[in-house]
Amino acid sequence: MTESHKQVYDVIIIGGGPAGATAAMYAARAGLRVGILDKGLTTGALGTTSKIANYPGIEGEVGGAELLQTMRKQAGEFGAEFINDKAIGTDLSSDPRAVFGNLGIYEARAIIVATGSMGRSNLIKGEAELLGRGVSYCAVCDAAFFNDKEVAVIGKSDEAVDEALYLARFARTVHFFAPSKELNVSPEEFELLQGTQNVILHLGSVVKEIYGDGKVEGVRFLDREAGEGEQSLPVFGAFVYLQGAKPITDFLQGQIEISDEGCVRVDRENQTNIPGVYAIGDVICTHVKQAVIAAGDGAIAAIAAEKWLRGKSKPRVDWGK
User: Fold this and answer.
1) Sign of the CA dihedral running 7, 33, 281, 304
2) What is the pLDDT of residues 179-219, one digit of tens each?
3) Which of 85, 142, 158, 297 is catalytic?
4) What is the domain class of 3-119+245-309 according to CATH?
């Protein structure tokens, strides 16, 4: 962990979409020390939206990633710190609370969960069985184990591209599988990926299975345009960065109340059953999925967190309603 991450934040926000970025803006503007764990512009719903024409104050159409970048810039100008890492666990009973990332441990007095609902319930065949045996979700953590070997990266977001480029520094060949012909990345990022000598692009190819006997030995994929049926490719590792439509709560490890539908339960101030821990945006499933509503959630939670941290919050009498 770097020296800057040894400090204790007032608020750690997990997720940098419209809810998280707005919460960061309000919390930082209130003079709080704010850290935001985020994986990239196109890992969430807004960042993958091509056009938005109904966001208040924005004339005409704007790309989702462009709008989100503006929100993040505003939060940063108020002093919020964006940290390129993924939350893999939490300790919400400690003082201060702790968020465990791939790259370090981040401590804060209050936590705001803004991870959205793009988690996956349908895994690739063989993914779960071979997790930790060649299947990985973190190139920074595991790239060195695949030095001079063939690996596969599966996804189409900027997170997938960044991880593939990192892997290319270690692996002999990186096979990049994307289920569509177009990636949710900037032209500059795509050009960099395309220009990396040891990266082979398999665009429009769906990985159907990750196979192996006790360890990853290859992937089976379907090229939608080739018309050749499933093909096999020997690889030693498979790095998966796909998205779905399920609230992302696994890193909370059962420490807060979750509904039968998998959504985080909150009160009117977006506080969970643990005081000082809030949830906002699509992860709470209480509204239609619109960026402006998620942003409103972020403002409500940040204001509530600031009051709670300063000992001004009212007793919670309406939790779960």
Assistant:
1) positive
2) 999 898 888 999 999 999 999 999 999 999 999 999 999 99
3) 142
4) alpha beta
